[in-house]
Amino acid sequence: MMGSYFLGWLMVFSALVLASATPKNLPVLSFDEGYSQLFGEDNLMLLRDGKTVHLSLDERTGAGFVSQDLYLHGFFSASIKLPADYTAGVVVAFYMSNGDIFERNHDEIDFEFLGNIRGKEWRIQTNIYGNGSTTVGREERYSFWFDPSEDFHQYSILWTENHIM
């Protein structure tokens, strides 16, 4: 439906703690082969396998990285564990955007994990913006039925020529 609008996307990750993961039958690139660090020099730690990174947040900054290649369609997945402490005002995001190419007319697909106050329900917001407009798309918020700070959980986007799931 909206696939024709999403041209020249970069996969962008911005999170507190993130490890890349895919189903067993899909290839996984090493970090150096597929990604470049965007920001947070000391807050990105590449693990020994070369395919997993941990991102952290301190008083000044978080960390983020971006894919080196552009993608039109695909399966994009991340294993994410959210921070357990007071995180109101912090957003952990796993998203795709063509904003670097179309600054004034960018599209976006994302998961945004909204900050939390201890004892309150965690919330996730999903966004799909097409044709450079928030009026062409959908934004939804959901409450988790589990605590996403207790363990890593898999979050995935399957994007075909005709559907985004």
TrEMBL record:
Any GO MF annotation of the entry: hydrolase activity, hydrolyzing O-glycosyl compounds
Q: Which InterPro entries match?
A: Beta-glucanase-like, Beta-glucanase/XTH, ConA-like_dom_sf
Output the superkingdom of the source species: Eukaryota
Q: Name one process (GO BP) from the record.
A: carbohydrate metabolic process
Q: Which UniProt keywords apply?
A: Glycosidase, Hydrolase, Signal
Signal peptide annotation:
1-21
Q: Where is the GH16 domain?
A: 21-165
Which PANTHER family does the UniProt record give? XYLOGLUCAN ENDOTRANSGLUCOSYLASE/HYDROLASE PROTEIN 8-RELATED
State the name under which the record lists this protein. GH16 domain-containing protein
Taxonomic source organism: Nelumbo nucifera
